[in-house]
Each structure stands twice: as structure tokens, then as C-alpha cells.
Specification:
2 domains; 5 helices; Glucose Permease (Domain IIA); 10-stranded antiparallel β-sheet; alpha+beta; 31% helix
Amino acid sequence: MIDSYQSLSVQKVLTNLSAPSNTAPQRDATDPSFQQLLSMAMLDGGLSSGENNGGVGSLMLPLMLLLLEKILSLQATQDVTEEEKPDSPAAASLVDAASSGEAPRGDPGVPSGRPVGGVLTQGYHAHHYGLDFGIPVGTAVKSTMDGKVVYAGWNNQGYGNLVIVENGPYRTYYAHLSEIPVRMGDRVSRGDVVGLSGNTGNSTGPHLHYEIRYEMKPIDPTGQTLR
């Protein structure tokens, strides 16, 4: 027999399924997948009779409840993921470019191209939020977008001499510099020299560490940097 606790659990799941959502399309009991699950749970001895007639309903109800709760959990996770996706077309273009290996073109306010030549010595990964280019000390480092210099100086978090250029939601980082010819507040264009490469900060050899951030969060710059 289905006890009162199971009945309340079913009612709770059904209530959650029909509750309005501001971030995802509505689902209801008319959806074929949900309808089939609910029908299985109510067969012979299910909710409608309240009796145990030896049918699959009373045996499978706990499994159905777990399955329905799992579906709700996955739906909630999907809602959060959708909310975190960038809304800006430029951001979408940059993310698409990173995954496809193609650089966005035409908009000088979006990072594109290499800040230096040289050899890529380390790529972007979970513990390294940028690209490292092995180059001799004193190599000209060029901005990859138009923008404003919002930081120019020593950084105590391992970057050494650091320049940050900002344009809207985008920031580009140029680290381990030997010299900084720009100052905070300067306006720069794509291709302007913003520093000379070096070996300052937490660095094991002369190189440039380059990052792109969107809304303060690091993103993989590989696709739009390496052409």
C-alpha cells in the first residue's frame, strides 16, 4: 500500500513540475515523457485506488519519485547554466571563436591577434588563465584592442610589471614586463606598444603572459589570438 508519505512526495513533485519558471520553458503533465512516468506510477494499486493490488505501481513508485526528482534537478541546473551564458553578441562571438579557432574580425574593441611574435610555451588551462610566449627581454608588446589603460605598474600577485587595457566588458593583461611606457588613463589603439617584455614577477624565463577577461572572468584566448 502507498503510505501517506509517498502520496505527499508525489504531490510535491507534481507541484514542482507545474510551478512557473522565469528562466526556462514551462513543462507540464501533458508532456509525453512525464505523462508516461506518471501513468506507470499509478498502475494497479497506484494513487487513484490507494490500495495494493500487487501491480507495478506500488512497487515502482519510489523509483518513479527518484526519477522525477532527478529530472527536476537537471532542469534547475540547466536554468542556472542558461543564466550564466553571455548575452552580448560580441561575447558570444568571442566564445564561439575560442571554440572554433577563428578570431573575431572588424571590431577594434574586441581582442584579436597576437600581442607579440615568438613561440607559444604554455597554453590556457585550468591553472593557467592565459597564453605564454617565449621572447627575448625588451620585445615590443602590442595591445590587441582599442581601449583605456586601467593598470600600469607592479603587481604583487605574480604578474610582475603588468599592463591592463580595458574596453567595455573586455580586459587584456600583459604581464612580466621589463618596461612600461604607458600610464593609467592613457588611450591606446590595437597595435600600440604598451610594454616591453621581460622576466619580472613569478617567471622562470623571459616571456610574455597574455590574458583576455570578459566581465572580469578569464576566458580562453587561443582561438582569437593564434591565427
